[in-house]
Structure formats: structure tokens, C-alpha cells
Amino acid sequence: MLTLNVNAKSRQYKINIKRGILEKLGDHIKLLYKGKRLLVITDTNVSRLYKEKIDRTLSEYFKVDFIEVEPGESSKSFKTMEICCEKLAQLNITRSDLIVAFGGGVVGDLAGFISATYLRGVDFIQVPTTLLSQVDSSVGGKVAINLESGKNLVGNFYQPKAVFIDPDLLSTLDEKYFSDGMAEVIKYGCIRDEKLFNNLKECTDINKIIEEIIYTCCEIKADVVGEDELDKGIRMILNFGHTIGHGIEKVFDYKKYSHGEAVAIGMYVISKNSEKLGLTKMGTADEIKNLLEKYNLSYELPVVEEKNLIDAIKKDKKRTGEYLKIILLKEIGNCYIKKIKSDEIKNYI
């Protein structure tokens, strides 16, 4: 088993990566949780595939209840959160119990935010089931729901008690959603690890090195979170491609583009334009484009009303007053934070 430590100021915990770890999840949880009750929050797709398996391993040691939500961004809402919290109340969940977030990024964000707020805090663990959640969203404690006005605008920083990653769960992932996660993997190579970026270029069978890839991405994120848990400084680099990406998701009502697809476009578009401004090494955008194409990701900005996109981008959480902090590359593996006036974002899209 590959293990990493996340040394956030609010909590220290382990990321555990192992093929087949789901089969023994109950054994692992028993080592870090002495209570008797677990509440698993998942979505209907994951439940259909894995509910019997996870119930079997957890029920050896715990009384287990399940809450299932619909898959997709629409579940990251106050409405879904309220329904879930009412169910927690009906089940008499207490602060001494443990919540298990078992699903992709949507489930992790939703279950994490419920954990952070219900009874002012219930411990939870992350068991991510998609590549995107395994390499990124399950680690670091960012939990949130969406508003009509934008993505992740209501949330908290609330670290899990542990993260358990089973790469075997990716075998049932649709190709579209595997590519979705590869956008975040490529992001890590862009911002911090040229070797990872080059390995992705040269790789002929991604599944053979998937554990190494997950470990590398989680290691980068754990280091950054340990240095800046609350996203006030260096942690912002993890949002490379996200400023434009979140805007694209919002403009298309979270229906046409998945998170990874939107981030992929955001990485290429902002790099292409920062090259034109002399802020990024020439040829960097083409390198990103070629790698995105290899992993079946689009890179061109879709036809969109520029004003609508800019308005969506201006709701970005990295905005302070009239200024916006964006993430640019000097070159592959080397990024920086640039503070611009909000109106200047039009130069980067």
C-alpha cells in the first residue's frame, strides 16, 4: 500500500492507495474509528455498482446506513443538502458517528460540506471512485455546494479523517470520465512536475502506471495543502485552468461540459493568451494542446457570449475587490500567481 501524510494545520491524516482496498475497507476504518455507526453518502450510479460490496465489508464491524443522491453537479445544492441533513436527523446521527463519502467529486464535496456543518461538525472519510476525485478533490478539505450564481460559492475547509483510494474502482468508469480526471492529472504536470508531464506524453498504457500517477498528484497536493490549507497563497496554483473552466461550466449550466473538460479548455486558452502577452514560454500552449488531445480532451474555447463568460469568471473565489488572481505558467512544471484587475481577464480568454 502506498501511503502519504497530509499535514494540514487543522488535522493530520493519511492518504492510502491500494488496488482492492475497498474489499478490506472495514478493517482499515476500524483502526482509526472506535464508534459503531457509519453513514455512507453515495450516488445512485456508484450504489448500483458497489453498494453490496461496501456494505459487506463495513457491516462486519459497524451499523451502516446509506443515503443516495442523484449523480451530477445538480446534487451540489442547498436542496439536496437539506434533504440529506433531514435524513441524518431522522437517523439520529450524532457527532460521535462517522460519515463515509463514497463517490466522485460531487459526492465528496456534498458529503464533506454536510459533515462540516451538520451538528457543527461530524468526522468523515473520503473513498473516491473517479480519477478526478482520486487525484484531486478528495484531498485537501475543500468542501462546497453550488449556487445559481456560480460553482462552490458556499463551502468550508474541513479535512477528512482519512482518504482511501482504490484504483480498481476506475475499471467501471466511462472513458469520458476517465478523460475528465486526466485533465487534473495534466494540470499537476503543468504547475509542478515536468517529469509527470513528460511521462504522460510518453506513456502507451496509462493503466499500467495509474497508481504511480495517483500517488504523484496526491503528493503534490498534500505538500501544497500542508503549506497553505486555507487557500490564501500557494494553494491557489491548484486552480490553474479553473478560473476560465468554472466560467465555462457556469455559462453552459453545468450540463455541456464536465469539470475536467472545462478545466482542460481553461488551461490551454489561458496559456495561449499568456504566451501572446509574453508571460509564458512560447510553445507551452501547444504542448498542453497535444497532451489534451492524446487523452481525448477538447482544448478550444467554445462559441460563447464573451460578456456572459466574463461575468461568470468575475464570481471566482480568488477575486478580491476589483482584482483577480490568475494562475499562469512560466513553462511546463513552473507556474506563478498573477494579480490582475478583473476587467483585464478579457485579455486571457
UniProtKB/TrEMBL annotation:
Protein name per UniProt: 3-dehydroquinate synthase
What CDD domains does the database record attribute to this sequence?
Answer: DHQS
Where NAD(+) binds, per the record, is at G105, V106, V107, G108, D109, T129, T130, K142, K151
Q: Which GO terms describe its molecular function?
A: 3-dehydroquinate synthase activity; metal ion binding; nucleotide binding
Q: Which residues bind Zn(2+)?
A: E184, H242, H259
The reaction(s) catalysed by this protein are: 7-phospho-2-dehydro-3-deoxy-D-arabino-heptonate = 3-dehydroquinate + phosphate
Check the record and name the PANTHER family matching this protein: 3-DEHYDROQUINATE SYNTHASE (PTHR43622)
Q: What is its EC number?
A: 4.2.3.4
